[in-house]
Amino acid sequence: MKNVTDSFVSLAHWPSAGSFGFNTDILATNPINLSVVLGVLIFFGKGVLSDLLDNRKERILNTIRNSEELRGGAIEQLEKARARLRKVEMEADQFRVNGYSEIEQEKLNLINSTSKILEQLENYKNETIHFEQQRTINQVRQRVFQQALQGALGTLNSSLNNELHLRTISANIGLFGVMKEITD
């Protein structure tokens, strides 16, 4: 203890213009200075430090609560997003299935309508061919008839004499008269 008091007393007796030096007596200087500084800090800084730590603790707890609330909200939003995703995927699958079935139905409808159109075209073609055949046959008949008529008229004119001619005309007039009586 004497060393401790000696170090305080020696502080008062320092020469003002002396040399500068270090006190290497650790036991005499450092523990006392540290204990005084720590005592003052604890006594005066206890309330301030306690308030600072309490404020810091409150801020940390508020931050944790906010983080938990945000986490809960994020989890809720994630679940909603997952539910929407599942719903959209189901709708997409439904559209895909319906789309494929609609495509197949449209394909069948197109095939059926095309086959009906082809059948109609085939019928029109056959009707046109038949019409053209009939027209051609009629034209050939007319030509044959005209040629036969011209040939018959030529033969009749060359082989008919006046008397045969008059008999043929009278027979035809008689036929017309009988036909007229039948129709009346």
UniProtKB/TrEMBL annotation:
Lineage of the organism: Eukaryota, Viridiplantae, Streptophyta, Embryophyta, Tracheophyta
Q: Which organism is it from?
A: Craigia yunnanensis
Secretion signal, residue range per the UniProt entry: none
One Pfam family matching this protein: ATP-synt_B
Q: Which cellular compartments is it found in?
A: Membrane; Plastid, Chloroplast thylakoid membrane
- Bilayer topology term: Single-pass membrane protein
Question: What role does this protein play?
Answer: F(1)F(0) ATP synthase produces ATP from ADP in the presence of a proton or sodium gradient. F-type ATPases consist of two structural domains, F(1) containing the extramembraneous catalytic core and F(0) containing the membrane proton channel, linked together by a central stalk and a peripheral stalk. During catalysis, ATP synthesis in the catalytic domain of F(1) is coupled via a rotary mechanism of the central stalk subunits to proton translocation.
Keywords for this protein: ATP synthesis, CF(0), Chloroplast, Coiled coil, Hydrogen ion transport, Ion transport, Membrane, Plastid, Thylakoid, Transmembrane, Transmembrane helix, Transport
Q: Spell out the coiled coil positions from the record.
A: 71-98
Subunit details: F-type ATPases have 2 components, F(1) - the catalytic core - and F(0) - the membrane proton channel. F(1) has five subunits: alpha(3), beta(3), gamma(1), delta(1), epsilon(1). F(0) has four main subunits: a(1), b(1), b'(1) and c(10-14). The alpha and beta chains form an alternating ring which encloses part of the gamma chain. F(1) is attached to F(0) by a central stalk formed by the gamma and epsilon chains, while a peripheral stalk is formed by the delta, b and b' chains.
Protein name in UniProt: ATP synthase subunit b, chloroplastic
Which InterPro entries does the UniProt entry name for this protein?
Answer: ATP_synth_b/b'su_bac/chlpt (IPR002146)
Q: Which family does it belong to?
A: Belongs to the ATPase B chain family.
